[in-house]
Structures are given as C-alpha cells and as structure tokens.
Amino acid sequence: SQTIHQWPATLVQPVGSPLSLECTVEGTSNPNLYWYRQAAGRGLQLLFYSVGIGQISSEVPQNLSASRPQDRQFILSSKKLLLSDSGFYLCASTGNLSPLHFGNGTRLTVT
Amino acid sequence: AQTVTQSQPEMSVQEAETVTLSCTYDTSESNYYLFWYKQPPSRQMILVIRQEAYKQQNATENRFSVNFQKAAKSFSLKISDSQLGDTAMYFCAFMKYSGNTPLVFGKGTRLSVIA
C-alpha cells in the first residue's frame, strides 16, 4: 500500500519569507499527486495536481507554485509568503483507480 | 463539473446510537467512485468507505455503511453503535472513473459523539 511522507509537520514563517514543503510517496509508481490546503475548521481546497513528472495543473491562482522533479516527489513552494497562506497543507497520492491516500499534513503559520 | 454537497455542517449523536450523514452530488458521468473520509482532531485524513457506482450493493465496513441511491445522486453514511473515537470531520468525495482527475470534496460535516 502507499505511504506518503510529508514534512515538516509544523512550520512558522514570517511574511515575505520563502516556503518549501516536500512530499514523497512509497509503494506505487507513476502516481497522481495533489496538494490541498485546509483552513481551520473548513473543507479541502485543491491547489495543484500532477499526473506525471513536470506536469502541474494549478487550480487556484496565487503566490504558490508546485513542482514534480521526480516520479514520487512533489514540492510546494512560495517565493514570498502572505498571511493568507496560513493553513494546513496536505499532500495526497492516488494510483490507477485507487482511493486518495494522504500524508499527515503540515501546519503552516505565517506571522 | 462535478459538485458534492454536504448539507449538515454539524451533527451530534449519543454514544452507542446510530447517525446518518448526508451527501448529494451532481455529475453527468455514469461511472465513478464515491468515498467517505474521516478527519479526527489529529487532522489525518482516513478513508472510511468507498463505493463504485456500477455496484448496486451498498458498501459496508464494520460499523460504517452507505446508502447509495444512484438515480437520486445521494450517498449517505450511516454509523452504527457510535463511539467517542468517531468524533471527527467527515468528508464525502467524488472521483471520475478515469482516475486522472482530482477528487471533488464536499465541505464536510463535523460529528460529535457525546458520552
């Protein structure tokens, strides 16, 4: 079965600083990969998804970007964080017709 | 585009009782998957149950079962013998059969199990 490694678990960053969140997947090849964001007590907002290396689809225009340098690696970045970027970020992966598996998430606080 | 609606933002149930969470969806697809995910206070997302649209039989997983009404586009989750550990946010989700498109999630229902 798939295992999603996501780090760091918690991050506090000042406004204007850069961001890099990393996610790696074990137990499957050529997965579809996703980044979701969840505000406190709210639903899941899809940010980016990728069906292959170098293929990124953006769902919400903002100051975040994503990259997929390797088959099972997905990175979420920002050059300059905003207060509104605070939230809980979840990486997820799915294989062919398999359910979505989630990492444990990163709680980001922008101060 | 597909949409998923969970009309109950919050619900509560007494321990050992049964509760049903509602979910409706809108799609023009004929083949698809439906899921219920649980997010406890730890915020880890846990798959509770899945249903393939081509199967008429409702899925069950121990105390969790669904009532899938394809014509009505309804997919409710029933939790029997509720336990304190069932306290969580529950999300209903839709996935096209092709699998190469993202899951679409509802906004969630916060369930509290009361001792």
Structure description:
The complex is a heterodimer of chains A (111) and B (115). Chain A has no helices and eleven strands. Chain A has 111 residues and is mainly β. In chain A, strands 2, 4, 5, 6, 9, 10 and 11 form a seven-stranded mixed beta sheet that branches. In chain A, strands 1-3-8-7 form a four-stranded antiparallel beta sheet, with no helix packed on it. Chain B has strands at residues 3-5, 10-14, 19-21, 24-26, 32-39, 46-52, 60-61, 64-69, 74-79, 88-96, 104-105, 109-114.
Instruction: From the alpha carbons, calculate the radius of gyration of chain A and give it in angstroms.
Output: 13 Å
Strand content of chain B: over 45%
Q: Summarize model confidence as the mean pLDDT of chain A.
A: 91
Q: Mind summarizing the main beta sheet of chain B?
A: 6 strands, mixed
Largest interface, Cβ cutoff 8 Å: A-B, 25 and 21 residues
Write down the overall geometry of chain A: globular
Helix content of chain B: under 10%
How many strand units of chain B?
Answer: 12
- Protein structure class of chain A: mainly beta
Helical stretch tally of chain B: 0
Beta-strand percentage range of chain A? over 45%
Helicity of chain A, as a percent range = under 10%
Radius of gyration of chain B: 14 Å
SSE string of chain A, helices as H and strands as E: EEEEEEEEEEE
Uncertain residue ranges of chain B: none
Distance between the termini of chain A: 38 Å
State the gist of this model.
The complex is a heterodimer of chains A (111) and B (115). With 111 residues, chain A is mainly beta.
